[in-house]
Amino acid sequence: MLDPILEVESLNVSFATPDGTVNAVNDVSFKLRRKRCLGVVGESGSGKSQTFLAVMASLASNASCSGKVLLDGKNLLRLPKAEIRQIRGNRIAFIMQDALTALTPHMRIGELLMEGLMIHKKLSRSEATRKILNVLDVVRIPDAASRINMYPHELSGGMRQRILIAQALLCEPDIIIADEPTTALDVTVQAQILDIFDELKRDTDVALVLITHDLGVIAGRADEVMVMYGGRAVEKSEMRALYVNPLHPYTAGLLAAMPSFASNLGEALPAIAGQPPDLQSLPKGCAFMPRCSKAAQICTDERPLLKSYGDRKAACHFAEGS
Amino acid sequence: MFAYCLRRILILIPTLFIIIALSFLLIYSAPGGPFDAEAALDPQIIENLRQTYNLDKPLHQQFGLYLGRLMQGDLGPSMIYRDFTVNELLGASLPISINLGLKSLLLAILLGCSIGIAAALKRNSKLDYGLMFVSMSGIAVPSFVVAPLLTLFFGIYLKEIPGVGSYLGLPVAGWGGLRNQILPIIALALPQIAIIARLTRASMIEVLSSNYVRAARMRGLPERNVILNHALPAALLPIISYLGPALAGVITGSVIIEQIFDLPGVGRYFVQGAMNRDYTLVLGIILVFSTTVLLLNLIVDILYGYLDPRVRVDE
Question: What domain range includes position B253?
Answer without folding.
Answer: 86-311
